[in-house]
Specification:
This protein has 11 helices and 6 strands. The protein has 335 residues and is of the alpha+beta class. It folds into 3 domains: 8-169, Growth Hormone, Chain: A, CATH 1.20.1250; 172-270, no CATH class; 283-328, no CATH class. β1 (191-197) and β2 form a beta hairpin. The radius of gyration is 26 Å and the shape is globular.
Length: 335
Protein backbone atom coordinates (compact mmCIF):
# COMPACT_ATOMS: atom_id res chain seq x y z
CA UNK A 1 0.00 0.00 0.00
CA UNK A 2 1.25 3.48 -0.78
CA UNK A 3 1.88 5.93 2.02
CA UNK A 4 -0.63 8.73 2.45
CA UNK A 5 0.44 12.37 2.68
CA UNK A 6 0.19 13.82 6.16
CA UNK A 7 -2.75 16.17 6.61
CA UNK A 8 -2.65 19.59 8.29
CA UNK A 9 -3.76 18.10 11.60
CA UNK A 10 -0.90 15.59 11.54
CA UNK A 11 1.65 18.29 10.73
CA UNK A 12 0.33 20.51 13.53
CA UNK A 13 0.46 17.64 16.00
CA UNK A 14 4.17 17.17 15.23
CA UNK A 15 5.19 20.82 14.92
CA UNK A 16 3.38 22.44 17.86
CA UNK A 17 5.15 20.45 20.60
CA UNK A 18 8.46 21.37 19.01
CA UNK A 19 7.50 25.06 18.87
CA UNK A 20 6.45 24.95 22.52
CA UNK A 21 9.63 23.19 23.58
CA UNK A 22 12.07 25.33 21.62
CA UNK A 23 10.44 28.72 21.14
CA UNK A 24 8.04 29.21 24.04
CA UNK A 25 10.51 27.87 26.61
CA UNK A 26 13.19 30.23 25.28
CA UNK A 27 11.03 33.37 25.37
CA UNK A 28 9.83 32.27 28.81
CA UNK A 29 13.41 32.41 30.10
CA UNK A 30 13.94 35.77 28.39
CA UNK A 31 10.85 37.19 30.08
CA UNK A 32 12.03 35.91 33.49
CA UNK A 33 15.27 37.85 32.99
CA UNK A 34 13.38 40.91 31.75
CA UNK A 35 11.06 40.95 34.73
CA UNK A 36 13.88 40.55 37.24
CA UNK A 37 15.74 43.33 35.43
CA UNK A 38 12.64 45.51 35.79
CA UNK A 39 11.86 44.95 39.46
CA UNK A 40 15.27 44.32 41.03
CA UNK A 41 15.44 48.00 42.03
CA UNK A 42 12.88 47.12 44.67
CA UNK A 43 15.16 44.51 46.24
CA UNK A 44 17.65 47.21 47.27
CA UNK A 45 15.27 50.12 47.82
CA UNK A 46 16.42 50.83 51.38
CA UNK A 47 20.14 50.94 50.68
CA UNK A 48 19.54 52.77 47.37
CA UNK A 49 17.55 55.52 49.07
CA UNK A 50 20.15 55.93 51.80
CA UNK A 51 23.20 56.04 49.52
CA UNK A 52 21.62 58.36 46.93
CA UNK A 53 19.75 60.49 49.45
CA UNK A 54 16.39 59.74 47.85
CA UNK A 55 13.15 60.44 49.71
CA UNK A 56 10.32 57.93 49.56
CA UNK A 57 8.55 60.18 47.07
CA UNK A 58 11.62 60.51 44.83
CA UNK A 59 12.26 56.77 44.89
CA UNK A 60 8.62 55.96 44.09
CA UNK A 61 8.52 58.52 41.28
CA UNK A 62 11.76 57.22 39.77
CA UNK A 63 10.66 53.59 39.98
CA UNK A 64 7.38 54.52 38.30
CA UNK A 65 9.07 56.40 35.45
CA UNK A 66 9.90 53.00 33.99
CA UNK A 67 6.26 52.58 33.02
CA UNK A 68 6.05 56.01 31.38
CA UNK A 69 8.81 55.06 28.96
CA UNK A 70 7.23 51.64 28.54
CA UNK A 71 3.85 53.17 27.70
CA UNK A 72 5.20 55.70 25.20
CA UNK A 73 7.25 53.24 23.15
CA UNK A 74 5.15 50.07 23.35
CA UNK A 75 3.09 50.59 20.17
CA UNK A 76 5.89 52.17 18.08
CA UNK A 77 8.14 49.25 19.01
CA UNK A 78 5.64 46.71 17.68
CA UNK A 79 5.26 48.66 14.45
CA UNK A 80 9.02 48.61 13.98
CA UNK A 81 9.10 44.87 14.78
CA UNK A 82 6.58 44.23 12.03
CA UNK A 83 8.75 46.19 9.63
CA UNK A 84 12.28 44.91 10.41
CA UNK A 85 11.47 41.42 11.72
CA UNK A 86 11.24 39.85 15.16
CA UNK A 87 14.71 38.33 15.22
CA UNK A 88 16.54 41.62 14.78
CA UNK A 89 14.19 43.80 16.81
CA UNK A 90 13.83 41.55 19.87
CA UNK A 91 17.61 41.05 19.90
CA UNK A 92 18.00 44.84 19.82
CA UNK A 93 15.57 45.22 22.72
CA UNK A 94 17.42 42.72 24.91
CA UNK A 95 20.87 44.13 24.15
CA UNK A 96 19.83 47.74 24.80
CA UNK A 97 17.98 46.98 28.03
CA UNK A 98 21.06 45.10 29.25
CA UNK A 99 23.28 48.12 28.66
CA UNK A 100 20.76 50.50 30.25
CA UNK A 101 20.46 48.24 33.28
CA UNK A 102 24.25 48.17 33.66
CA UNK A 103 24.17 51.96 33.45
CA UNK A 104 22.51 52.01 36.89
CA UNK A 105 26.00 51.79 38.39
CA UNK A 106 26.52 55.42 37.29
CA UNK A 107 23.47 56.73 39.15
CA UNK A 108 24.52 59.43 41.61
CA UNK A 109 21.28 61.22 42.49
CA UNK A 110 17.66 61.88 41.65
CA UNK A 111 18.13 63.09 38.06
CA UNK A 112 20.33 60.21 36.93
CA UNK A 113 18.01 57.74 38.70
CA UNK A 114 14.99 59.22 36.92
CA UNK A 115 16.77 59.17 33.56
CA UNK A 116 17.93 55.55 33.77
CA UNK A 117 14.53 54.26 34.91
CA UNK A 118 12.82 56.10 32.05
CA UNK A 119 15.35 54.80 29.51
CA UNK A 120 14.95 51.26 30.87
CA UNK A 121 11.22 51.54 30.20
CA UNK A 122 11.91 52.69 26.64
CA UNK A 123 14.37 49.84 26.11
CA UNK A 124 12.05 47.10 27.39
CA UNK A 125 8.83 48.55 25.96
CA UNK A 126 8.51 46.34 22.92
CA UNK A 127 9.58 43.04 24.42
CA UNK A 128 6.33 41.71 25.90
CA UNK A 129 3.96 42.87 23.12
CA UNK A 130 6.57 41.93 20.54
CA UNK A 131 6.78 38.37 21.84
CA UNK A 132 2.98 38.13 21.94
CA UNK A 133 2.88 39.23 18.30
CA UNK A 134 5.75 36.93 17.37
CA UNK A 135 4.01 33.89 18.86
CA UNK A 136 1.03 34.49 16.57
CA UNK A 137 3.35 33.78 13.62
CA UNK A 138 3.99 30.26 14.89
CA UNK A 139 1.01 29.20 16.96
CA UNK A 140 -2.53 28.75 15.60
CA UNK A 141 -5.46 30.52 17.23
CA UNK A 142 -6.76 27.53 19.15
CA UNK A 143 -3.38 27.01 20.89
CA UNK A 144 -2.52 30.65 21.66
CA UNK A 145 -4.27 30.89 25.03
CA UNK A 146 -2.39 27.94 26.47
CA UNK A 147 1.01 28.99 25.12
CA UNK A 148 0.40 32.63 26.01
CA UNK A 149 -0.43 31.65 29.58
CA UNK A 150 2.75 29.57 29.75
CA UNK A 151 4.80 32.54 28.55
CA UNK A 152 3.20 34.97 31.02
CA UNK A 153 3.83 32.75 34.04
CA UNK A 154 7.41 33.99 33.73
CA UNK A 155 6.44 37.10 35.76
CA UNK A 156 5.53 35.27 38.99
CA UNK A 157 8.42 32.86 38.43
CA UNK A 158 10.81 35.83 38.23
CA UNK A 159 9.57 37.13 41.58
CA UNK A 160 9.68 33.64 43.04
CA UNK A 161 13.30 33.22 41.98
CA UNK A 162 14.67 36.75 42.19
CA UNK A 163 13.25 38.10 45.44
CA UNK A 164 13.93 35.17 47.78
CA UNK A 165 17.48 34.66 46.52
CA UNK A 166 18.25 38.39 46.77
CA UNK A 167 16.80 38.60 50.27
CA UNK A 168 18.33 35.33 51.46
CA UNK A 169 21.88 36.25 50.46
CA UNK A 170 21.99 39.65 52.14
CA UNK A 171 22.24 40.55 55.81
CA UNK A 172 22.88 43.81 57.65
CA UNK A 173 21.92 46.93 55.69
CA UNK A 174 21.60 44.75 52.56
CA UNK A 175 25.33 45.19 51.93
CA UNK A 176 26.74 42.31 53.98
CA UNK A 177 26.28 38.59 53.54
CA UNK A 178 23.49 36.98 55.50
CA UNK A 179 24.62 35.06 58.57
CA UNK A 180 23.22 31.91 56.96
CA UNK A 181 25.19 32.15 53.68
CA UNK A 182 28.19 29.87 53.27
CA UNK A 183 30.47 32.65 52.02
CA UNK A 184 33.80 30.98 52.81
CA UNK A 185 34.27 33.26 55.85
CA UNK A 186 34.08 36.38 53.73
CA UNK A 187 35.54 39.65 55.00
CA UNK A 188 32.15 41.10 54.08
CA UNK A 189 30.76 39.75 57.36
CA UNK A 190 30.52 36.14 56.27
CA UNK A 191 30.66 32.68 57.78
CA UNK A 192 32.14 29.42 56.60
CA UNK A 193 29.34 26.90 57.21
CA UNK A 194 29.85 23.16 57.52
CA UNK A 195 27.03 20.96 56.25
CA UNK A 196 26.72 18.25 58.90
CA UNK A 197 24.12 16.31 56.93
CA UNK A 198 20.46 15.70 57.66
CA UNK A 199 19.66 19.41 57.47
CA UNK A 200 22.11 20.34 60.27
CA UNK A 201 24.78 23.06 59.96
CA UNK A 202 27.52 24.70 62.03
CA UNK A 203 29.61 27.83 61.46
CA UNK A 204 33.30 26.89 61.55
CA UNK A 205 35.06 30.14 60.52
CA UNK A 206 34.27 33.83 60.13
CA UNK A 207 35.69 36.98 58.49
CA UNK A 208 38.85 35.39 57.17
CA UNK A 209 39.28 36.37 53.52
CA UNK A 210 37.54 37.72 50.45
CA UNK A 211 35.63 34.77 49.04
CA UNK A 212 35.71 33.91 45.32
CA UNK A 213 32.30 35.59 44.98
CA UNK A 214 33.64 38.72 46.70
CA UNK A 215 36.63 38.71 44.38
CA UNK A 216 34.36 38.35 41.36
CA UNK A 217 32.40 41.41 42.54
CA UNK A 218 35.74 43.23 43.00
CA UNK A 219 36.72 42.38 39.42
CA UNK A 220 39.59 40.09 40.45
CA UNK A 221 38.42 36.71 39.14
CA UNK A 222 36.28 35.48 36.26
CA UNK A 223 32.86 33.83 36.56
CA UNK A 224 34.46 30.44 35.93
CA UNK A 225 36.59 30.86 39.08
CA UNK A 226 33.59 31.14 41.40
CA UNK A 227 32.47 27.76 42.77
CA UNK A 228 28.94 26.99 43.84
CA UNK A 229 27.98 28.02 47.36
CA UNK A 230 24.83 27.68 49.45
CA UNK A 231 22.58 29.40 51.91
CA UNK A 232 20.32 27.85 54.52
CA UNK A 233 16.65 28.56 54.01
CA UNK A 234 14.26 28.92 56.98
CA UNK A 235 16.88 28.26 59.68
CA UNK A 236 15.49 26.93 62.99
CA UNK A 237 16.92 25.65 66.28
CA UNK A 238 19.62 28.33 66.09
CA UNK A 239 21.97 28.05 69.07
CA UNK A 240 23.10 30.48 70.32
CA UNK A 241 20.40 32.74 68.88
CA UNK A 242 21.30 34.93 65.87
CA UNK A 243 19.45 36.60 63.00
CA UNK A 244 20.24 36.96 59.29
CA UNK A 245 21.70 40.43 59.94
CA UNK A 246 23.84 39.32 62.92
CA UNK A 247 27.62 39.63 62.84
CA UNK A 248 29.54 36.43 61.96
CA UNK A 249 30.15 34.00 64.78
CA UNK A 250 31.88 30.63 65.06
CA UNK A 251 30.23 27.61 66.64
CA UNK A 252 26.59 28.45 65.91
CA UNK A 253 24.47 25.41 65.07
CA UNK A 254 21.12 25.38 63.29
CA UNK A 255 18.83 23.35 61.06
CA UNK A 256 17.27 24.25 57.74
CA UNK A 257 17.08 23.55 54.03
CA UNK A 258 20.24 23.87 51.96
CA UNK A 259 19.86 25.89 48.74
CA UNK A 260 22.79 25.80 46.32
CA UNK A 261 23.58 28.91 44.30
CA UNK A 262 25.66 29.23 41.13
CA UNK A 263 27.42 32.35 39.90
CA UNK A 264 25.10 32.15 36.89
CA UNK A 265 22.18 32.73 39.26
CA UNK A 266 23.82 35.90 40.56
CA UNK A 267 24.60 37.15 37.05
CA UNK A 268 21.01 36.47 35.94
CA UNK A 269 19.72 38.80 38.67
CA UNK A 270 22.46 41.44 38.87
CA UNK A 271 24.11 41.31 35.44
CA UNK A 272 27.78 40.68 34.68
CA UNK A 273 30.56 42.48 36.48
CA UNK A 274 31.82 45.42 34.38
CA UNK A 275 34.70 45.84 33.86
CA UNK A 276 35.74 42.20 33.94
CA UNK A 277 38.70 40.63 35.69
CA UNK A 278 41.07 41.23 32.79
CA UNK A 279 40.77 45.03 32.93
CA UNK A 280 39.74 45.82 36.52
CA UNK A 281 42.08 47.92 38.70
CA UNK A 282 44.44 46.05 40.98
CA UNK A 283 44.97 48.86 43.48
CA UNK A 284 42.35 49.70 46.10
CA UNK A 285 42.83 53.24 47.44
CA UNK A 286 41.57 53.82 50.95
CA UNK A 287 42.12 56.58 53.51
CA UNK A 288 42.16 56.34 57.30
CA UNK A 289 40.89 59.50 59.01
CA UNK A 290 41.38 60.69 62.55
CA UNK A 291 38.55 62.99 63.63
CA UNK A 292 38.71 65.18 66.72
CA UNK A 293 36.28 67.67 68.15
CA UNK A 294 36.76 71.37 67.51
CA UNK A 295 39.38 72.74 69.85
CA UNK A 296 40.41 69.25 71.02
CA UNK A 297 43.95 67.95 71.20
CA UNK A 298 45.45 65.01 69.33
CA UNK A 299 46.75 62.10 71.38
CA UNK A 300 49.95 60.82 69.69
CA UNK A 301 49.26 57.33 71.04
CA UNK A 302 45.90 57.23 69.23
CA UNK A 303 47.51 58.42 66.01
CA UNK A 304 50.15 55.71 66.31
CA UNK A 305 47.44 53.10 66.90
CA UNK A 306 45.57 54.14 63.76
CA UNK A 307 48.81 54.02 61.79
CA UNK A 308 49.46 50.44 63.01
CA UNK A 309 45.95 49.46 61.90
CA UNK A 310 46.57 51.10 58.53
CA UNK A 311 49.79 49.22 57.91
CA UNK A 312 48.34 45.92 59.13
CA UNK A 313 45.33 46.38 56.86
CA UNK A 314 47.56 46.72 53.79
CA UNK A 315 49.24 43.37 54.39
CA UNK A 316 45.96 41.69 55.36
CA UNK A 317 44.28 42.99 52.20
CA UNK A 318 46.92 41.39 49.97
CA UNK A 319 46.50 38.05 51.73
CA UNK A 320 42.68 38.28 51.80
CA UNK A 321 42.57 38.77 48.02
CA UNK A 322 45.06 35.93 47.39
CA UNK A 323 47.59 38.47 46.14
CA UNK A 324 45.33 39.73 43.37
CA UNK A 325 44.97 43.29 44.71
CA UNK A 326 46.76 45.60 47.09
CA UNK A 327 45.43 48.42 49.24
CA UNK A 328 47.11 51.82 49.04
CA UNK A 329 46.38 53.84 52.20
CA UNK A 330 49.01 56.56 51.91
CA UNK A 331 47.94 59.98 50.71
CA UNK A 332 51.26 60.43 48.89
CA UNK A 333 52.54 57.01 47.78
CA UNK A 334 56.24 56.94 46.87
CA UNK A 335 56.81 57.34 43.13
Amino acid sequence: MGSQAAGPADVAARVLPRVTRRLVSFVFICYVVAYIDRVNVGFVSTILQRELGLSNQAYGFGAGLFFLGYFLFEIPSNLILERVGARRWIARIMIVWGFVSMGMIFVTGERSFYLLRFLLGLAEAGFFPGIVLYLTYWIPTRERARNGALFMTAAPVAMLVGAPVSEALLGRDSVHWSFFVDSDASVMEGNDIADLGGGSFRTVAAVRRFSPLDQYAMGLVAESDVPAFFYVESPVNVSPSVEADSAPRIGVTFNGTRRDVLIQDIVAVMGRRVPGSSTSPRVHRQAFLFVRSRGGTVDPAQVAKIDRIRRTWESFFVDATDGRMRAETRLRPPS
